[in-house]
Each structure stands twice: as structure tokens, then as C-alpha cells.
Amino acid sequence: MVKPKRKKVQSLLMSIAVVLLVYLVRQGDLKGIFVQVGAIPVWLFLTLIGLQIVTQLLLNYQWYRLCQVFGWPTSFFQLLLVNSYGAVADAVTPGEKIGGEVVRVVKLRSYLGYSTGQSTILVAIQKALSLSALVLLNVAVVATMAHHITFLQAWPVRLLLFLILIAIGAFLFYLFFRTRSLKNRLARIRTTRKLLLSLINWVEDFANLTDRIRQKPGEWLFQLALSVLIWVIFPLKLIMLILLHTNSIPTLVLFGATFLSYFAGMIPLLPGGLGAFEGTMSGMLTAYGLRLNQAVAIAVVFRFITFWFVLILSLFFIGGERIVLYMQRRSTDDQHS
Predict the structure, then answer these.
(1) pLDDT per residue over 70-114, tens digit each?
(2) The predicted structure's pLDDT at residue 302
(3) How many CB atoms lie within 10 A of CB 110?
(4) Cα separations (Å) of 279 from 4, 92, 179, 265, 291?
(5) Minimal CA–CA distance to 309: which of 56, 75, 61?
(6) What distance in Å separates the CA atoms of residue 303 and residue 310, rounded to the nearest whole number?
(7) At what angle do helices 76-92 and 98-112 cross, to 10 degrees?
(8) CB under 8 Å to 208, separation ≥6 — which residues?
(9) What distance in Å separates the CA atoms of residue 324 and residue 176, rounded to the nearest whole number?
């Protein structure tokens, strides 16, 4: 009974999201939106694409470096393929992107020969690093944006946000630096259940790998700094787009708009968070003086660069791999014939 109700609620929310997205585009004057998009200089568009490619390469390098620290056989190119498949799965998976992580685990096994345990640990550590950086950036935003965003001016709101961020930060700290303690506690449990035994073994492997990162001086700091850099490049793209229209919106507000929009996009309504992301960003930008067609145009272009372009690039990369494999098979068949 619970699942059918949940599906009905999700279908209703998806319908509402679609209606709101259509309403937003119509209210924003479709012609005016196209005019605003067309007014973006080619050099700026190419610069934004270049920054996104840098972002993807930095993200892939983080995966590659983690594998090297763990002492696992790895390939930068094959990890690009793994993340390309993951990006495609993210695009068709509503909001929370669980599907993308599952695909990454499967592809890590097939391309690099990792076990399921190794693959899930690698995905978990990389995602936890990314979340740690996002928590730090949000703490900075909440601490400094109280005078710029109305709802943050109320101290109970700031306190609640700080408590949530501190709780997430404490969990991540425990995950990275106290996993050994959790492993020791689980080891005291006497059980024959396969699921629990698998969990105990996984936590032990996780603890061993986080220990290995700590054994390399400065590695945790480097990984966290890399995650922060990857996140910071996102609002940098938004700032460059906004400067075409105004320089009156505080930089920290644009940081907050970016991260809040990504959070809204994680709500599982439509594939890739479609609608929720654009609506949130457009709403925040219009609140700071931009016309609706300007705000929607900026949100659409930003979304194209950070989402649709990544999807196209991933499909191109996967297609290239398929063509190469096909040519290799043809060459082998010709040699045997």
C-alpha cells in the first residue's frame, strides 16, 4: 500500500513540476529568453564550456588519485569512461542520482576489475569528500550572507542551518577519521548472518583505505582542497553570466544561489532535477532585481553548460569508445578470415 501511494505522490509532484516549468517559461517571455540567450558573446560561451571541461577533468583526477593512493591498478581514460556512463545515468535518474552511482560501481568492476566492495568504497569516499567541501562552503555562505538574504537574518534560521551543517560535518569527520573505532565495535558482534558479516568486512576495508590516505602526509587536505575547487568553479560560471547584466548582486549571494539550486535539483521529481534547478535559480535571481526573462535565460544557459553539455560530452565519449571497439573487432575478424 505504501509504494503505490508513494508513486502517486511522486507522479503528482512531477506533474506540478512540469506545469511550473511551462508557466515559468511562458511568464518569462519565450522570445525574450531566446534574445537574452542569443546575446551571450561566443567567447564567453566557449570560456564557460572550457571551465566545465576543466571541472570534469579535475573530478576525474580526484578519482584517479584516490585509486593511486589505494594502490589499485587504474587508468585515467577508463575512469573517464566510468564517469561518462555515470553522468548519463545521472541525467535519466530523477534528482538524487542513486542510479549514477550504481552504474559507476558496475563499470568500475568491468573496466578496472575492482570488486563490488572496492568500487562502493571508492564511490563512497569520493562522494563524502565532495559533500564535505559543500558543507564547508555552505557554512561560509550562511556565516557571511545574513545581511544579504532576508530569511538568513533571523537567528533561529541561521542556528538551525548551522546545526544541520555541523551534524553532517560531524558524521563525515567520523566517517573519515573514526571508521576504525566503528570497525572495532562491529568486530565484537557475534553473528552468522551473511548480510551483517558483509557489512563488517566492508567497514574493515573502508577503515583500511582511510588509514592509507592518512599515511600519506597532506593527502586529506589535498583531497578536500580539490573538492572545494571543483565546487567553486560552478558559481564562477554563474558570476560570469551575471556580469553581462549587472554587478550589483553580491558574490556570496551567487554562491548561495548556485548551491541552493543544486540542492533543489536533488529532489527526485524529474530526471536530472529538471525544473526544480531552473525554477530555484530563476526565483533567487529575480529577487535581486533581474528581469524574469534574464533570470530564466541565465539559468537555462548555466544548466546547459553544467548538465546538458556534460551529458552530450559523455555520450560522445562513450560513442567513441564503442566505435573503437567495433573497429578492433572488425580488424580481428578480418585477420581470422
Answers:
(1) 999 999 999 999 999 998 887 776 544 566 788 999 999 999 999
(2) 87
(3) 13
(4) 28, 19, 39, 9, 14
(5) 56
(6) 10
(7) 150
(8) none
(9) 40
Q: Give the DSSP per-residue string, 265-280.
A: HTSSSSBTTTTHHHHH
The whole-number pLDDT of residue 142 equals 74
Helices (H) and strands (E) in the chain, counts: 14, 0
End-to-end CA separation in angstroms for the chain: 59
Q: What is the pLDDT of residues 243-301, one digit of tens each?
A: 888 777 777 778 877 877 776 665 554 444 455 677 777 777 887 777 877 888 888 88
Q: Residue holding cell 565495535?
A: 185
Q: Which residue has the cell 565519449?
A: 317
**Residue 175 in contact with residue 185, Cβ under 8 Å?**
no
One-letter identity of residue 279: G
Residue 272 confidence (pLDDT): 47
DSSP for 244-262, written as a single string: TT-S-S-HHHHHHHHHHHH
Extents of the domains making up the chain = 2-332
- Residue 144 in grid coordinates: 557571511
Distance, CA of 305 to CA of 49 (rounded, Å): 6
